[in-house]
């Protein structure tokens, strides 16, 4: 007689693996960004991704030499941003933003957007809660 698996045995065995997937997708601030490399970007929005676990918006930034470079700005999840008063419709393609944050360690055009000045002049904290990165007070110092 062959042993038979109960119908729920396999799904239950895989449950711990499924629970670990969100943890693999998320990272700490220090895993990707350098808190010794603050940066301020002033640019025009080209794309917005209001997604979990992080929202992203993309800017075209004009240098003092007249060269345009494209940057990705990583911020918190939509729920956290919304609780801070930043709604999805607050930024649109073509809007100009001021973003204070920290450069990616790999040298790419990616920053952790800690403080964002919205088109209406409001400043919002864009960091991910609990990521171990610089707190809002340090981002405020960048904005000065």
Task: Give an account of the 3D structure.
The chain is 24% helix and 37% strand. By secondary structure, the protein is α+β, with helices and mostly antiparallel strands. The chain has a single domain, classed as OB fold (Dihydrolipoamide Acetyltransferase, E2P) (Beta Barrel), CATH 2.40.50. The relative contact order is 0.19. The C terminus is likely disordered.
Q: What's the quick description here?
A:
The chain is built from four helices and six strands; from the N terminus they run H-H-E-E-E-H-E-E-E-H.
The tally of domains stands at 1
Number of strands: 6
User: What is the name of the CATH topology?
Assistant: OB fold (Dihydrolipoamide Acetyltransferase, E2P)
Task: Specify Rg, calculated over alpha carbons.
Answer: 19 Å
Order of helices and strands: HHEEEHEEEH
Describe the global form.
globular
Question: What can be said about the biggest beta sheet?
Answer: 5 strands, mixed, barrel
Distance between the termini: 76 Å
Which CATH-level-2 architecture?
Answer: Beta Barrel
Q: Return the CATH class.
A: Mainly Beta
User: Mean pLDDT, as a whole number?
Assistant: 81
- Pick out the low-confidence regions: 17-25, 137-144
SS element count, helices: 4
Beta-strand content bin? 35-45%
How do the strands and helices of this protein lay out in sequence?
Layout: H1 9-25, H2 29-32, E1 33-49, E2 55-62, E3 68-75, H3 78-83, E4 96-104, E5 110-117, E6 123-125, H4 136-143
Parallel strand pairs: 3-5
Antiparallel strand pairs: 1-2, 1-4, 2-3, 4-5, 5-6
